[in-house]
């Protein structure tokens, strides 16, 4: 069953659901934290479209705090909708480390945007002001929030690491498949900031960035699966 609206609000009737499945959703936070911008609206995370190893500690803290706030709200909203002893399966796209690390999917997108800046197709100021509301959590981070929020018990945790589009053996075709997936997941946000026309130039750069990445580094999907049971 699906319903319109934000999952950071109530969207289903109270005590009406026996099973909820959230897949690759909660790493999207409700907003880019306002505290990453200074008093004149300039980002303190210049050169990064989300948290990376190069991000200032204050930026890392802000994104993490926003994620924690949002996940607590998500759990509270779902607890109102799920019957007692009902279940929720939460599949989270995360990371194996608590340390700030740029996810490979945002790394290649960031590189493609940087390439357009170097070619004079978008301005540096426009690129530096772009940020994505993303936080890739660790298993421990999600586990801590679930326990502290208190609406659900954790019945099982499992991590699954798999290569993106690993079934495709031809590297060019694989890069194309991954490029399409990244565009599908990010097109609206990117177009809203840079304009719809940006993809005519950005997509070839994105595919090239992925090709280079495939030759040097893995494109792993670190999946964290939680089976939760409502207790209150």
TrEMBL record:
Keywords: Magnesium, Metal-binding, Methyltransferase, Transferase. SUPFAM superfamilies: S-adenosyl-L-methionine-dependent methyltransferases. It comes from the Eukaryota. GO terms for molecular function: metal ion binding; methyltransferase activity. The keyword Magnesium applies. One of its GO terms (biological process) is methylation. This is Uncharacterized protein.
């Amino acid at each position: 069953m699906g319903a319109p609206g934000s999952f950071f609000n109530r969207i289903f009737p109270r005590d009406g659901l026996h099973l909820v499945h959230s897949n690759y959703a909660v790493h999207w936070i409700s907003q880019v934290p306002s505290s990453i911008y200074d008093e004149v609206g300039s980002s303190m995370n210049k050169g990064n479209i989300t948290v990376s190893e190069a991000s200032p500690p204050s930026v890392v803290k802000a994104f993490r705090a926003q994620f924690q706030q949002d996940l607590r709200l998500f759990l509270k909203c779902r607890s109102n909708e799920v019957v007692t002893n009902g279940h929720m399966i939460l599949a989270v796209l995360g990371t194996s480390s608590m340390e700030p690390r740029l996810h490979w999917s945002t790394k290649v997108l960031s590189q493609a945007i940087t390439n357009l800046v170097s070619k004079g197709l978008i301005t540096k100021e426009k690129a530096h002001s772009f940020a994505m509301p993303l936080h890739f959590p660790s298993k421990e981070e999600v586990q801590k929030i679930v326990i502290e929020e208190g609406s659900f018990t954790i019945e099982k945790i499992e991590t699954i690491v798999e290569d993106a589009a690993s079934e495709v053996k031809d590297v060019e075709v694989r890069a194309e498949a991954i490029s399409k997936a990244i565009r599908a997941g990010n097109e609206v946000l990117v177009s809203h900031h840079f304009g719809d026309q940006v993809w005519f130039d950005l997509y070839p750069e994105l595919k090239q960035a992925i090709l280079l990445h495939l030759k040097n580094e893995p494109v792993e999907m670190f999946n964290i699966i939680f089976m939760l049971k409502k207790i209150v």
